[in-house]
Amino acid sequence: MRSTICPQPNFLDLAAAPSSAPAKKAIGMPLHPTLFLGAQDVVELIRNKGLVTTLRDVARTIHEDFLRWDDFDKAARIANHSPLGVIELMPIADAHTYTFKYVNGHPANTARGLPTVMAFGVLADVATGMPLLVSELTLITAIRTAATSVVAAQALARPESRSMALIGNGAQAEFQALAFHCLMGIDEIRLYDTDPFATEKLVAHLRQSPDAANLRLKVCTSAAQAVQGADIVTTVTADKRNAVILTADMLEPGMHLNAVGGDCPGKTELAPEVMQAAWVFVEYEPQSRIEGELQHMPADFAVTELWQVLHGDVVGRNNEEDITLFDSVGFALEDFSALRYIYALARANKRGHALQLVPDLADPKDLYASLAPAPDL
Amino acid sequence: MRSTICPQPNFLDLAAAPSSAPAKKAIGMPLHPTLFLGAQDVVELIRNKGLVTTLRDVARTIHEDFLRWDDFDKAARIANHSPLGVIELMPIADAHTYTFKYVNGHPANTARGLPTVMAFGVLADVATGMPLLVSELTLITAIRTAATSVVAAQALARPESRSMALIGNGAQAEFQALAFHCLMGIDEIRLYDTDPFATEKLVAHLRQSPDAANLRLKVCTSAAQAVQGADIVTTVTADKRNAVILTADMLEPGMHLNAVGGDCPGKTELAPEVMQAAWVFVEYEPQSRIEGELQHMPADFAVTELWQVLHGDVVGRNNEEDITLFDSVGFALEDFSALRYIYALARANKRGHALQLVPDLADPKDLYASLAPAPDL
Q: Within a 13 Å sphere around the CA of A84, how many CA atoms are in the beta-carbon half?
């Protein structure tokens, strides 16, 4: 295999030049390069920035973009289902930038050494269709999901919320814990998972994290015990089945429920009575009706889109007694925000590799010349 | 910018190992690499294989896959339109393989040094969601489009067809000309384009091509002149508008019309009377109703999906007098075929680069560990 050689000096062309402006061609550098960020690039960018700082920046970026809701050409994601899992595409665009995410969900993957969820994304120029960035999003999706949970909780939970139940202690749990502790002042987290090793791993990680030095952790023996007395309840279990993690009898006045794990047809976490007892907020209603906890409710079950609360059009919580529920499935706009954030971060840090996704054509109207038998043949 | 170093010996792991089987990790090699084929890789693969051989192989692959029509999970492509163009995603999957293509259409691009149409695609493992291949498809799309035209014409045109009118002599024209000459025995092509320089470029390319040594070319001064007496009429103009290249008075008994240029809302080439005068065949009806020449016809206008003819369920042409029309818009299955072909070709030729789209995780259930502050920090 040959390596793509991209001399450092050329990176500036790549990072700075508008994609559609024919850049000065350098040896080994495509005329219209696409920036590639692999998993290791993203790991180093985020470690240098700091995980908590990244969570905070991504949450702010998501909040900004949700305030521009009407600027976006939106659609429910397109899913291809198979017996073992699902593969989805999540496109979205405003007047200047188009992004999409490719993401799968295959619960059996971990037994094969692969993550359950793998993702990558593309950011492109709406004016030309030129793909500007291809980036891993497996790691970034974990960050944007936790950031979105906090953006919603800041608008819906009681401001004095301090304790959170975290049910499901898998791959997403550390991100939820750190985001709620560092961005929202949660100082006690009550942990439960059917797999004690998952909880053990989560506790070990949080104990080692300097960002969680002041975070109290309570390991619980049941979901009910974890929920009892919690201001916020986060459910983020992984099984692709209709499970019932929360029942109505576990609810307490004033709770905010952050339901993250129910995110595709046949994968839910809440009893219908929990939905009926709460004010339900969603990201993008047409998608949530298909994928969210909402899939079990009648088509006319009332919900509010989160952006309306952030935008000040609708009140999130009316009083201290309301039970609020964020039925989170993950929406393309959150990946749009994450992609524009990581793209800017990579360019500022001159990080990444050049891909030749677009051929170098002497005449852009002439594709044949580059494939015709070479003159010397 | 750093380069992705992938020592030759590791390529075999990449090319041969099933994606989900943790391969032996080598320095600089991701644990779960995704094969990347840039434009130059594809140029060299196709030049080594030969353009006509590639056209023939891709046509055979498309034919094979159309015969398996019911094996595929199909959907109309998802488009994001803007004043300057469109960006589309085209996903499809069978029980084993998932593919999608990203493709744009921006007629003003050529003035900015970019192709009007740029594309790339991904091939993934349905069992795990692992992305196995990321490949340029700008060049490959030109090949699969011409190959698809021939697959349809072989089923719909009169077997003794020898002359073809080629209206629109832009980037797709050489591929159509060579495919119909070498794969279908067309020995005379009558050329017309509103831009004489486009026709001049096409003639020069075909005169230089050893594959077209026996092909007679007639440059015409109007579409009507080009069409007169032609057995097959191919329209492949580029303007994104509702143009009328063919009118009913230009039709002759027994003609096969290969309408390639009308492929998105507001972009058509034929007068409605031409549709009414012909037996109309399409790739995937739900998509063609939105994007094809069909967009001007009533919702109940009768059409036949091409696969039914290839499969022998429906007769294509009843007699020598029928006028047949392939209303081609480009369907995801053609890109599925092209992607599985180029993937096999690249692996057989040990061609490509490794991308780390999937992070190397010691524990696939633990994303946090790779982003946590490094121990030495």
A: 18
Which residues of chain A have a CB within 8 Å of the CB of B357? 38-39, 118, 120, 136, 138
What are the structure tokens assigned to A87, written together?
Answer: 């593969």
| Residue among A82, A112, A122 whose CB faces B102 most closely | A122
CA B24 to chain centre: 36
Instruction: Return the number of other C-beta atoms located less than 10 Å from residue B116's C-beta.
Output: 22
**Best of B58, B368, B370, B377 to mutate (most A CBs within 10 Å, chain A):** B368
- Look up the ipTM and state it: 0.91
Beta-carbon count within 10 A of B225 CB: 15
Given a cut of 90, whether residue A107 has pLDDT beyond it is no
Tell if the CB–CB gap between B365 and A89 is shorter than 8 Å.
no
Asked whether the beta carbons of A10 and A26 are under 8 A apart, the reply is yes
Query: Residue B277 belongs to what H/E stretch?
Result: helix B272-277
pLDDT of residue A240: 65
The rounded distance, in Å, linking the Cα atoms of B201 and B207 is: 10
Reported as a single tens digit per residue, the pLDDT across B343-374 is 999 999 999 999 999 999 999 989 999 998 76
Rg of chain A, C-alpha, whole Å: 22
- Cβ distance B106 to A113 less than 8 Å, yes or no, reads no
d(CA B183, CA B258): 15
Contact (CB, 8 A) for A199 and A192: yes
pLDDT (average), residues B112-127: 96
Count each helix (H run) and each strand (E run) in chain A, helices first. 12, 17
What is residue B267's predicted lDDT score, i.e. its pLDDT? 80
Amino acid in the structure at residue B222: S
Residue A33 has, within 13 A of its CA and on its CB side, a CA count of 27
pLDDT score, position B273? 95
Mean pLDDT rounded to a whole number for chain A: 91
pLDDT score recorded for residue B375: 57
Closest CB to A175 among B130, B131, B368 = B368
Q: How sure is the predictor about A221, in pLDDT bands with cuts at 50, 70 and 90?
A: very high
Q: Which pair of structure tokens corresponds to residue B376?
A: 């030495």
| CA angle, A88 then B130 then A174, to 5° | 75
Query: How many other C-beta atoms are found inside a 10 Å radius of the C-beta of residue A224?
Result: 14
What gap in Å lies between CA B44 and CA A300, rounded to an integer? 57
CB B1 to CB A350 under 8 A?
yes
| Rounded Cα gap, residues A35 and A133, in angstroms | 5
Q: Give the closest-approach CA distance of B315 to chain A in angstroms.
A: 32
Q: Mutating which of B98, B114, B237, B240 best tests the A interface, going by the most A Cβ atoms within 10 A?
A: B114
d(CA B341, CA A339): 31
% chain B with pLDDT above 70: 91
Q: Which two tokens stand for residue A123?
A: 């950011």
Enumerate the residues of chain B whose CB falls inside 8 A of the CB of residue A124: 87, 102, 104
Catalytic residues of B: 263
Beta strands A34-37 and A353-355, pairing class = antiparallel
The answer to whether the CB atoms of B358 and A39 lie below 8 A apart is: yes
pLDDT (average), residues A255-259: 97
